[in-house]
Amino acid sequence: MRFQGFDVLSPPGQLVTDYAREALEEWKEGQRRGEIEFARTEIGSSNKYNKAEVGTVGAVAIDANGNIAVATSTGGITGKLPGRVGDTPLVGAGTYADNRVGGVSTTGHGETIMKYCLAHDILKRIDFLGENAQAATENACKKMTEKLTGTAGAITIDSQGQVGVSFTSQRMAWAYIKGSTVSYGIEQNQHLEEALQI
């Protein structure tokens, strides 16, 4: 990174928070006792290994010319194996965009999302099965969880600007703006709307 003009942190790990260090030590102790396989990452799944704080954020957008953009960022998972690459950077798993069809950003149990290629499946349902954005998102999330048991959620926008939001986890915070209306929710089957104040 030095050749790019960035200084290397010394000592390594100085950006790791006390909370993250504590969570890792608690997770390791839980592993030694055989209490958990992996840290839970769902909103509201507070336990001593996860204080109900999650860090994934995703966005999908379409511009006036029909160009679709997708971005996904993750807070990671406590106790990950060294070298693990999660679903977030994998095109077709955590993120996928195709101007002809739509764009998807996912969140949830990364290993499950990677095995299923959740974002890719959602867009293929729109493209090949003719499902609308909402149906494709619901059906893919449900099918993935039925097949592989891990939970996930996704936000989708199709090439016509229609939005899909679905999740098999307990909760997923989401929001979108369409016209002058903001739609949002966090619980299953919750869909709230407010007029956008400009």
From TrEMBL:
> What is the reaction catalyzed?
L-asparagine + H2O = L-aspartate + NH4(+); Cleavage of a beta-linked Asp residue from the N-terminus of a polypeptide
Q: What are this entry's molecular-function GO terms?
A: asparaginase activity; beta-aspartyl-peptidase activity
Pfam families (alphabetical) = Asparaginase_2 (PF01112)
* Protease recorded as keyword: yes
- Source species, domain of life: Eukaryota
Q: A Gene Ontology CC term for this entry?
A: cytoplasm
Which key words tag this protein in UniProt? Answer: Autocatalytic cleavage, Hydrolase, Protease
The protein's site described by Cleavage is found at 55-56
**Active-site residues, record numbering mapped to chain:** 56 (nucleophile)
* Annotated binding of substrate, by residue: 84-87, 107-110
> Its GO biological process terms?
L-asparagine catabolic process via L-aspartate; proteolysis
Q: Which family does it belong to?
A: Belongs to the Ntn-hydrolase family.
* Protein function: Has both L-asparaginase and beta-aspartyl peptidase activity. Does not have aspartylglucosaminidase activity and is inactive toward GlcNAc-L-Asn. Likewise, has no activity toward glutamine.
> Which PANTHER family does UniProt cross-reference here?
ISOASPARTYL PEPTIDASE_L-ASPARAGINASE, L-ASPARAGINASE
Subunit structure and binding partners: Heterodimer of an alpha and beta chain produced by autocleavage.
Query: Any idea what this protein is called?
Result: Probable isoaspartyl peptidase/L-asparaginase GA20639
Q: Which organism is it from?
A: Culex pipiens (House mosquito)
